[in-house]
Amino acid sequence: MKRRLLGLALCFFVLPAFSQTSLSGNLSKVSVIDKQINLNTADIKTLSKSIKGIGSKRAEAIITYRQKHGNFKSVTDLAHVPGLGQKFVNSHADELQRIFIVE
């Protein structure tokens, strides 16, 4: 009798906890971007909310670089921005290509 109750308790309390953990873990990894951000027209607020690792200082550096050197020709040009660099661009390459466009 005790074993049956223990088995039922496991079914009701433990198994749902495992299923919710895996479900919520998968949902948190999903991100949908409705519209890409144009690097040549975006403002500080837009850039700083675009990708983890680009805050207000890096967003300002992107705009300053754009004003001094003209429009970006590709997303990989971000490697020339002081404060970002090649290492940042390489480590975030897929995300940068997915989020940003250059027009």
Q: What does this entry look like structurally?
A:
Keywords: Signal. InterPro entries: Competence_ComEA_HhH, Endo/Exo/Phosphatase_dom_1, RuvA_2-like. This is Competence protein ComEA. With 103 residues, this protein is mainly α. It has 2 domains: 1-30; 37-101, AF1531-like domain (DNA polymerase, domain 1). Helices cover 59% and strands 4% of the residues. The protein contains 5 helices and 2 strands. The protein has a two-stranded parallel ribbon with strand order 1-2. It starts with a helix and ends with a strand. The model is unreliable at 21-33 (pLDDT under 50).
Topology readout:
Layout: H1 2-29, E1 37-38, H2 44-48, H3 56-69, H4 85-91, H5 93-99, E2 100-101
Parallel strand pairs: 1-2
Features:
DNA polymerase, domain 1; mainly alpha; Competence protein ComEA; elongated; signal; Competence_ComEA_HhH; two-stranded parallel ribbon; 5 helices; RuvA_2-like; Endo/Exo/Phosphatase_dom_1
